[in-house]
C-alpha cells in the first residue's frame, strides 16, 4: 500500500482510535481521529479526508447502528462523493446491505484483520482518486465548452426543419436515447447539442466521441478507460468517455462505423449500466443519456448483418431525420446570410450582401456537402471578395451532376408527376409524411395522387 491518502476515523472507543492510528500511520499520508460525531462538520471542512472510517454504534445506541447511518447521511450531504467505510463489532448481512445502499463503500467488522483492512483501505483511496479525476475532467469539460450553455444556433424556416425543432421540444423532459440520421454536413452535432440543452441534463457534462476517427484498437480505452499498466503506454490510470459522461450526455457520432465486436461491448455497457476499465475486473456504475448519429442507412446495415438489431433498439428510442440542404428550400439563403454576417465580422470586410444572381446560383446548386459546404463557400467568398456585393463568380462550386432525362417525359405532365413522386418515395424510404414534405404538398394530397397514378 502506497503512502497516500488522508484518513478520518470516527469512533467512541479511544483504544480503537489509538490502535488504528498506530496501524495506519506508516501507510497513509495523514490520520485524524475523533470520538465525537458532532465534529464531523469541522473535520470535513478543515481536513477534507479522502477516506472516512466510521463506527456504526456509539454509546447512546450500541446495537442498531442507526447513529452510524445518521452520521453517514450528514457526511454525504457535505460531500456526495465522500468515501465512507463502516466499522462495527455487530456485523451482519442485513447491516452490510443497508450500509452499501445508504452510500457506504464497504463494511469492516471488528476485530479487523490487518491485511484485509489495508487492502480495503487501499481500494477506497484508489476510488477516491478516481472520483477526483472524474470531477476534474467534468470541470474541464464545462470550462472548455462554455458555449454549450447558450442555445445552439439552428436556422431554418422550412417545414422539414420545423418538424425537427418540434421533435426537439417534445423531447425536452425526457431522457430517451436518440438516434440522429442525416447526410454529412447536415448539422447532426447541432441537433445533439440542442437535445442536451433542452434536456433535464443540461447542466451536466456533454461528452462527444467520433467513432469514425478512432481506430478500433483504441475504442475500448477511449470509451471505457484503463488502469495503470493495462498496456505498454498506460503509465497512469485514465477515465473513459462513458465514465466522464456519467450523470450527463454521451454523443456517439458516426456510430455506423462501429465494428460488430465493439457493438457488442457497447451494448453490454448500456444494458448493465456499468463499465470496466481495461486492466481491471472491477465495475463502475454509469448513468448516461445516449445520443447517437450516423450518415449511413443503419436499418439497411441491420438487414445486411453489419449492425446489431438489439443495439439499434437500445439507441433509437426516438429517431430524428435531418433533411439535406437541397430539400430545405429558402433555408439556403437564410443560412447564407447568417454565415455572411459571421465572416464579414471575422475578416472585417465591408460587404452588403448577395446579388440576385448569386442567390439564384446558391438556390440552384445541389449542395452535396450540405450546410458545411455552404459555410465554407461563404467564408471563401468573403475572404477573396474585393467588392461590396458577392456575385456568382465569387462562388466556386462543384459542377452539377448531369441528369439523363427523356425530353418526351418532360412534356408529359402525368409522367413528370409520377417521376417526382417515385423519387420522393424512394428518398423518404416509403415514409408518406416525409415524401409529402419533399414534394411540398399535404399528406392527403399525396394519398390522392398515389391513388390517381396507381402507385
Which key features would you list for this structure?
elongated; Helicase, Ruva Protein, domain 3; alpha/beta; 455 residues; 47% helix; 4 domains; Rossmann fold; 19 helices
The number of helical segments is 19
The span between the termini is 75 Å
The poorly predicted ranges are 142-148, 405-410
Q: Return the average pLDDT rounded to an integer.
A: 84
> In the CATH hierarchy, what is the superfamily of the largest domain?
P-loop containing nucleotide triphosphate hydrolases
- The assembly state of the depicted protein chains is single chain
When the domains are counted, the total is 4
CATH architecture of the largest domain: 3-Layer(aba) Sandwich
Reading side by side through the largest sheet, how are the strands ordered? 2-1-3-4-5
Per the CATH scheme, the topology name of the largest domain is Rossmann fold
Specify the overall morphology. Answer: elongated
Binned, the helix content reads 40-55%
- What percentage of amino acids are in beta strands? 5-15%
- Please summarize the sheet with the most strands: 5 strands, parallel
The rounded Rg comes to 30 Å
The top-level CATH class of the largest domain is: Alpha Beta
Question: Which structural category fits the helices and strands?
Answer: alpha/beta
State the total count of DSSP E strands: 16
Pfam family, one: Response_reg
GO molecular function: ATP binding; sequence-specific DNA binding
Organism: Phocaeicola massiliensis B84634 = Timone 84634 = DSM 17679 = JCM 13223
InterPro entries: AAA+_ATPase (IPR003593), AAA_lid_NorR (IPR058031), CheY-like_superfamily (IPR011006), Homeodomain-like_sf (IPR009057), HTH_Fis (IPR002197), P-loop_NTPase (IPR027417), Sig_transdc_resp-reg_receiver (IPR001789), Sigma_54_int (IPR002078)
Amino acid at each position: 500500500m502506497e503512502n497516500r491518502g488522508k484518513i478520518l476515523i470516527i469512533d467512541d472507543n479511544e483504544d480503537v482510535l489509538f490502535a488504528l492510528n498506530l496501524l495506519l500511520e506508516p501507510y497513509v499520508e495523514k490520520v485524524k481521529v475523533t470520538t465525537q460525531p458532532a465534529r464531523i462538520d469541522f473535520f470535513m471542512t478543515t481536513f477534507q479526508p479522502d477516506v472516512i472510517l466510521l463506527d456504526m454504534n456509539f454509546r447512546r445506541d450500541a446495537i442498531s447502528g442507526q447513529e452510524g447511518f445518521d452520521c453517514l447521511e450528514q457526511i454525504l450531504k457535505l460531500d456526495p462523493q465522500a468515501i465512507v467505510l463502516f466499522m462495527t463489532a455487530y456485523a451482519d448481512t442485513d447491516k452490510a446491505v443497508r450500509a452499501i445502499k445508504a452510500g457506504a463503500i464497504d463494511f469492516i467488522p471488528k476485530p479487523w484483520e490487518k491485511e484485509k483492512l489495508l487492502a480495503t483501505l487501499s481500494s477506497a483511496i484508489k476510488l477516491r482518486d478516481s472520483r477526483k479525476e472524474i470531477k476534474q475532467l467534468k470541470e474541464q469539460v464545462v470550462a472548455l465548452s462554455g458555449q454549450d450553455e447558450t442555445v445552439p444556433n439552428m436556422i431554418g424556416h422550412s417545414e422539414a426543419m420545423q418538424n425537427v425543432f418540434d421533435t426537439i421540444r417534445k423531447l425536452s423532459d425526457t431522457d430517451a436515447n436518440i438516434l440522429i440520421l442525416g447526410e454529412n454536413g447536415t448539422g447532426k452535432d447541432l441537433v445533439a447539442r440542442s437535445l442536451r440543452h433542452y434536456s433535464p441534463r443540461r447542466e451536466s457534462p456533454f461528452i462527444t466521441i467520433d467513432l469514425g476517427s478512432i481506430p478500433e484498437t483504441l475504442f475500448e480505452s477511449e470509451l471505457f478507460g484503463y488502469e495503470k499498466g493495462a498496456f505498454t503506454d498506460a503509465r497512469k490510470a485514465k477515465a473513459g468517455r462513458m465514465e466522464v459522461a456519467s450523470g450527463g450526455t454521451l454523443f456517439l457520432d458516426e456510430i455506423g462505423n462501429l465494428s460488430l465486436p465493439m457493438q457488442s461491448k457497447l451494448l453490454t455497457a448500456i444494458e448493465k449500466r456499468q463499465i470496466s476499465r481495461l486492466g481491471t475486473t472491477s465495475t463502475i456504475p454509469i448513468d448516461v443519456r445516449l445520443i447517437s448519429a450516423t450518415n449511413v442507412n443503419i436499418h439497411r446495415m441491420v438487414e445486411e448483418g453489419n449492425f446489431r438489431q438489439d443495439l439499434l433498439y437500445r439507441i433509437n428510442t426516438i429517431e430524428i431525420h435531418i433533411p439535406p440542404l437541397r430539400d430545405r428550400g429558402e433555408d439556403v439563403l437564410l443560412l447564407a446570410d447568417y454565415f455572411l454576417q459571421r465572416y464579414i465580422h471575422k475578416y472585417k470586410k465591408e460587404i452588403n450582401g448577395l446579388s440576385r444572381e448569386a442567390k439564384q446560383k446558391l438556390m440552384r446548386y445541389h449542395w452535396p456537402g450540405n450546410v458545411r459546404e455552404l459555410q465554407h463557400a461563404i467564408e471563401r467568398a468573403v475572404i477573396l471578395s474585393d467588392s461590396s456585393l458577392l456575385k456568382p463568380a465569387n462562388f466556386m462550386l462543384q459542377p452539377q451532376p448531369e441528369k439523363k432525362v427523356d425530353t418526351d417525359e418532360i412534356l408529359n405532365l402525368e409522367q413528370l408527376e409520377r417521376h417526382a413522386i417515385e423519387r420522393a418515395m424512394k428518398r423518404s424510404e416509403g415514409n408518406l409524411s416525409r415524401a409529402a414534405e419533399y414534394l411540398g404538398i399535404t399528406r392527403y394530397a399525396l394519398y390522392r395522387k398515389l391513388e390517381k397514378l396507381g402507385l
